[in-house]
Amino acid sequence: MNEILKLDHVTMQFGGLIAVNDFDNCVKEGEILGLIGPNGAGKTTVFNVITGVYYPTKGKVLFDGLDITPLKPHHITHIGISRTFQNIRLFQDMTVLENVMVAQHHEIATKDAEKYLVKLGKNKYGANSLWFWKSVLKLGYISREREMMDKALNILDKLGLKKLAYEKAGSLPYGEQRLLEIARALATDAKLLLLDEPAAGMNPSESQQLVQLIKWIRDEFQVTIFLIEHDMKVVMGLCERILVMDYGVLIAEGTPDEIQKNEKVIEAYLGEEWSNVAE
Ligand SMILES: Nc1ncnc2c1ncn2[C@@H]1O[C@H](COP(=O)(O)OP(=O)(O)OP(=O)(O)O)[C@@H](O)[C@H]1O
């Protein structure tokens, strides 16, 4: 499998604290990769470096072979990486449909990213570029809105949320708000989805459904998935490969079976969350 994302010796330091220390690994195209580790291990910081929230102290991030380290978060969304957050970030007072449509509007703000891609000879996004100029000139704006709505409804339909399209996002039960976050991420035409604790707050039956749904999303939308998760049953049932961090350091990599037997990993977890899995 090709590497879709490469973290090349990434270090992220906050003052005296090294949150991520020489992280050197990749995400392979089409895989479901898990990132686990105790609280404060540095997992979210890895996602923040990938998505341009932080500029790493050392190292580079490559996406499809392209150095994306200097790009801003909205540019990173534009080139095909989208994320969900640990704490749900929806527009609570907007409808479900509007939330998904708004996610597509990143295309409007892409000029700088396109300049950067052109400079690197990588402009594969001609259609979006045309849309940018059309929207500036207000040409085709209405038909474009229609297209966005159809696309949003299609995604909602696939995720079983279409019947809720005109409900306020804030009125949805927690599990469905998490699904809506995934719908928003898919609406950006992402090639790589970063999911930060997708099962947080779900009951055991919801989280088992989520495992099946994420596998289905990977196949249906042909996306690669990199996720942070504390629920070990979800991680072990879903991920094909797992990376384990502790105190900013990548301490293990392997299949679910290999990770469950890894002494360093067992030690890092001090038996806590781990005992749930081993049962
Ligand atoms: N902006 C920041 N400034 C200073 N320290 C930070 C910042 N962001 C993260 N940290 C610190 O970096 C370390 C790693 O934090 P991070 O949120 O990446 O861990 P995590 O593995 O995602 O934890 P959790 O599972 O609890 O979400 C922590 O000690 C945290 O306090």
Write structural notes for this entry.
- Strand 7, helix 8 and strand 8 (224-228) form a beta-alpha-beta unit.
- The model is unreliable at 123-127 (pLDDT under 50).
- The protein folds into two domains: 1-80 and 190-278, 3-Layer(aba) Sandwich (Rossmann fold); 93-110 and 125-187, no CATH class.
- The protein has helices spanning 43-50, 73-79, 96-104, 111-119, 126-136, 141-158, 174-186, 204-221, 232-238, 256-261, 263-269, 272-278; strands at 3-14, 17-28, 32-36, 58-63, 66-67, 81-84, 192-196, 224-228, 241-246, 249-254.
- With 279 residues, it is an alpha/beta fold.
- The chain has a six-stranded mixed β-sheet, sandwiched between helices. Strands 2-1-4-5 form a four-stranded antiparallel β-sheet, with helices on one face.
- It has twelve helices and ten strands.
- Helix 3 (96-104) crosses helix 6 (141-158), helix 3 runs parallel beside helix 7 (174-186) and helix 8 packs parallel to helix 9 (232-238).
